[in-house]
Amino acid sequence: MESYISDSKGFKISVKTEFDFEKSNPLRFYYVFQYHITIENVSATTAQLLSRKWFISNANGKEDVVEGPGVIGKRPVLSKGQSFSYSSFCPLSTMTGKMHGKFFMKSAGDGDTFDIETPEFFFSIPEEYTTL
């Protein structure tokens, strides 16, 4: 499992990725990668996650943009020291790819909105699946 970390505006975002062989179908060029994200509030500001925007690129340079409310149907509120973790997946038509994005937040105190950047993270099939 690969790990990636970023700090953005008082929030630490950790991402771990892994290849999901069971859900993939390489004969149909369908590769599924899991990603596990933890958002930790290390600031003094309580904020709610409102939405997210992802930029997903495959190995051929094709980029898709995915955006929507919350994450996995939730819009967590994070006070100082609190964290929220979730897992999701990304299907690709190539054996490698990358992803990065933003979470759009709203401050509980003054109602100001701001975004926090995720680290760029990468997907690749482990060598054990690519060698014969």
Quickly count the helices.
Answer: 1
How much of the sequence lies in strands comes to over 45%
CATH architecture: Sandwich
CATH topology tier name: Immunoglobulin-like
User: How does the overall form come out from the CA principal axes?
Assistant: elongated
SS-derived structural category: mainly beta
CA-based gyration radius: 16 Å
What report would you give on this structure?
The protein is mainly beta and 132 residues long. It has one domain: ApaG domain (Immunoglobulin-like). The chain is 3% helix and 60% strand. It has one helix at 127-130, and strands at 2-8, 11-19, 31-41, 47-58, 63-69, 77-78, 83-92, 96-107, 113-117, 121-124. The strands form 2 sheets. Strands 4, 5, 6, 8, 9 and 10 form a 6-stranded antiparallel beta sheet that branches. A 4-stranded antiparallel beta sheet has the order 1-2-3-7, with no helix packed on it. A hairpin with a 4-residue loop joins strand 4 and strand 5 (63-69). It starts with a strand and ends with a helix. The mean pLDDT is 95.
Defining key terms:
132 residues, mainly beta, Immunoglobulin-like, 6-stranded antiparallel β-sheet, elongated
Topology summary:
Elements: E1 2-8, E2 11-19, E3 31-41, E4 47-58, E5 63-69, E6 77-78, E7 83-92, E8 96-107, E9 113-117, E10 121-124, H1 127-130
Antiparallel strand pairs: 1-2, 2-3, 3-7, 4-5, 4-6, 4-8, 8-9, 8-10
